[in-house]
Amino acid sequence: MSTFSRQDQLPSLPVPSLVETLEKYIDSASAILTPAEKARVEKEAHEFQHSELGAQLQSALENRAKNHKNWLEDWWYNAYTEIREPLAPYVSFGAMNTAYNCVDGGQVSRAADVLHHWLSVWDKVRHGKWPVTSSRGVTWDMQQFHHLFSSNRTPQRTRDTMDRYFKTKEEGDTPTHVIICCDGCFWKLNILNEDDDTIKSPDEIYNMLKFVRDNSSDESSCCVSKLTTTNRDVWSLNRDELLRVSSANIEYVRAVETSILFLSMVPKKGGDDQQKLMSNALQDESWFVWQDKSVNITIYEDAQVMVQGDHSNIDAIVLLQVGDYVASRVRKQLWHPAKTGSDLHFEFPERLIFEFNEPLRHAISFADVEFYKSKQLYRARGVHHHGYGNELCRTAKVYTDTVVQLALQLAFLKTHGSFAPIYETASTRKFFHGRTETVRGCTSQFVRFAKALLGDQTVANEKEDLKKLFDSAINAHNQLMADCMDGRGFDRHLMGLKLTLSIMNKGCGPKRQAPEFLRDDTWKRTGGDGNFLLSTSFIGYMDGNQPGTFGYVAAMRPDGYGCFYRIGKSRISVAVSDWVSSRSNIDAFCANILWALDALAPFLTPAQKL
C-alpha cells in the first residue's frame, strides 16, 4: 500500500446536526457557568436553533459540504494564515529530542547524518513508501506528509499564502535541494545523485557540509533570515523590498522557499541541560531559522539538535513522528567518511549572497531587537512524573491520555482555585484532509469529581463515591474524544456557522448579527474563539521511557498554559509553557501536575472499563 493510495477512499468530513452541536455546547459551558448563566445561554442557543437564521446557516454549510470533500479545510488554513503576529513564538512548534547526545567536534558528522535521514523520509514520501498511518484499524489521511517538505508560508498583507512545491514521483518534478545556513551564510545543496536519482549518502553530504563549514565567514549580524521573525505584514513589506533590490535576490528567495528543508549549523553549544534546551527550542538566536518553513533543523557545535516548524501547515504530531524516526537512526558517536576533501569528488554547494540596501539593513537590525524582546515574553518547563505510565493504566483499562487530562485540570484548580476551559487536540485524520477538533474536557462530571477530591463534602465523602465520580469523569471525557474523532465535535461546526454568516453578510442583503449566545460574555469565558486557559495535546507514546522528540507551542491565552505530553511505560512527561507577566504561575502549576498525577494513582484499579 503506497503512502497516498487510500486518499480517495477516505470519507468526507461530516457536518453535525445543529441540535447536537448546540446541546453539546450548552452541556460543556454549564460545567463552568453559574446556574443563572447556564439558563441564559440555554435560552439563547435554543432561540438560535429554532430561528430562520439558524436554519439558513446550517443549510448553507451542508451545501458547502456537498461541494467540498472537506468543508473546513480552506477555512482552517485561513484561520492560521490570517494571524499577523510573528510565527515564533505565537504559531510555530519547537522541539528538542532526548535521544541526541553531545559530541565534541561532531557538528558536521551529526548534521550529515541528520540531514541524510530526513532526506530518506522525503525520498520515501516521494516514492509513496512512507507507511500509511492507522489507528485501531482505521486508515488516516496522509496529506500532511505531502505538505511537510518544500512548503512555505509566504507573507502577504492581511493573509499569508501556503505555497507547497513538493510532488511525488508520479506527480512530476519536485525541488531536490536543501538550504544550509552556516554562520549566517546561505548555501544551496542538491541532494540527489544525477546518475541514479538516489539521495546522497551521509559521506557525500558530510563532504558538502564540511566545504560549507570551511568556506563560511561570520555574517550572522546581517543574516536575511532575521527578517522572517517579524510581524507578518512587516515581513511582507521587507520581502517585497528584498525582491526589488536585485534579480539575484529573487532567485535566492525562490530557492529558500521551494527548498525541501532549512538546516543551520551554528557556532554555539546546545548542551545537555534539558530545561535550557526546551526554553531555546522555540526561539534561540534570531538567524537560526527561516520561520516560514515547515521543517527547520538547527545543529549546534556540540552536535545537539533542535527542530522547529510552522504549525499552520502541519500538525505537530507529523513533525514529531519524523523527528523520532530520524533520531533513532542517527549515529551517536563522532565519525568521518573514509574519504574526505580532495580524496573524494563531491558536488560543490552553491553560495547564495543576498544584496541589501540601507532600508533592509535597518530592517534586519530592527528585527533582531524585536526578536530578543519576544524571547522574554514566555517560559517553558519540562515536568517528568515517574510514578506510573501506560503499563499501569492499561492494566486498569483506562486511557493514560484521559488520566493526564484530568491531572492537568486538577493542577490548574489547585493552583488558581477555579476551573479552566481546556482545549485538547482530537485528530480528525480518519476523514479526507482532516486535521483536528477540540475536546473541551472540563465536563460537569469532572467538576463533581474534582470538588469531591479536594474535600467538598456536599459532593462525596466516601472513597467508593470518589471512585464512581472518577469513573464518570473518565467516561465523559472518553465519549467526547470519540465524538470529536468521528467528526461530531462542536467547535469546528460553530466556527463554520460563523464564517458562513460572515460570507452571507458580504452580499447585497441586510447584515445580520451573530446569534446572541456567540456574543454573550460567557462565550469567551468558556473557551470560545480560542480562549482556553489550558491548551493541551497528547503528542505520542515514548519508545520505552525515553521521551524522544519533545516540544511545545505557546499557550493560547496570556494567562493560560500550554501542555504537551508524551506517555511512556512508567512515566509521563509534560512540556509546559506560559506567558510572563500574567496571573499564570508556572512553578506552582508544574508542581501541582506532579501532585495531581499522584492523587489520581489510587483510582487506577482494574474495575474501570474502557
TrEMBL record:
Gene3D superfamilies: Chloramphenicol acetyltransferase-like domain (3.30.559.10), Choline/Carnitine o-acyltransferase, domain 2 (3.30.559.70). InterPro entries: Carn_acyl_trans, CAT-like_dom_sf, Cho/carn_acyl_trans, Cho/carn_acyl_trans_2. Signal peptide: none annotated. Residues 13-593 form the Choline/carnitine acyltransferase domain. PROSITE patterns: ACYLTRANSF_C_1. GO terms for cellular component: peroxisome. The active site is at H311. Keywords: Acyltransferase, Transferase. One of its GO terms (molecular function) is carnitine O-octanoyltransferase activity. Pfam families: Carn_acyltransf (PF00755). It comes from the Eukaryota. Belongs to the carnitine/choline acetyltransferase family. This is Choline/carnitine acyltransferase domain-containing protein. It comes from Caenorhabditis elegans.
